[in-house]
Amino acid sequence: MSASEKSVSILNDVIEILNDRIEGYERAMKDVEFEDVDLKAMFANLIHESRGFRNDLIQEVTTLGGEPERGTTATGQIHKAWMDLKAAFTGKDRESILSSCEFGDKAAIKAYDDALEDNVSASLRETLISQRDSIQRTHDTISQYLRSSQAAY
After folding, report:
1. How much is the pTM?
2. Which end of the chain, N or C, is surrounded by fewer C-beta atoms within 10 Å?
């Protein structure tokens, strides 16, 4: 496998995770209560951010001569099924939605960490690190929201 084919494969793995992230936040925005405008606004911003990240990586894949990934991960499909089951039993409350978002961002961070373990170009490494750091900040924010939500009960 050539270096560019390897980079395309790495990027497509991250694109799949970003597709999972977009679907997860779209679902969270739909499931969150009407009065949770703070979460709705945050989720809308995260969807926009994730689409931007994905578009940047799609451009890189195309530049490398590859075909960008359009689907989601098998893990993402499993996570969605788990969220459906959990919602059926516990409802769609703020805490469970935040917990699912936190889980999804942990998976995204791991995907970026895995991608960064491979030998990629310096400019690609810089892009991946910047995106990963942004997702880490989001994860930390969601964790704070989750702790606040748990403390309220």
Report:
1. 0.86
2. C
CB crowding 26-47: b at 16 or more within 10 Å, else e: ebbbebbeeebeebbebbeebb
CB 102 within 8 A of CB 110: no
Measured distance CA(138)–CA(153) in Å, rounded: 23
Pull the structure tokens for residue 56: 């940047």
Give the tokens for residue 81.
């099924």
67-71, 106-110, 121-125: the lowest-pLDDT one: 67-71
| 112 within 8 A of 14, measured Cβ to Cβ | yes
For residues 37 and 12, give the distance between their C-alpha atoms in angstroms, rounded to a whole number.
Answer: 33
Q: CA 51 → CA 34, 67, 80, 109, 131, distances in Å?
A: 24, 17, 19, 16, 12
3-state secondary structure labels for all residues of the chain: CCHHHHHHHHHHHHHHHHHHHHHHHHHHHHHCCCCCHHHHHHHHHHHHHHHHHHHHHHHHHHHCCCCCCCCCCHHHHHHHHHHHHHHHHHCCCHHHHHHHHHHHHHHHHHHHHHHHHCCCCHHHHHHHHHHHHHHHHHHHHHHHHHHHHHHCC
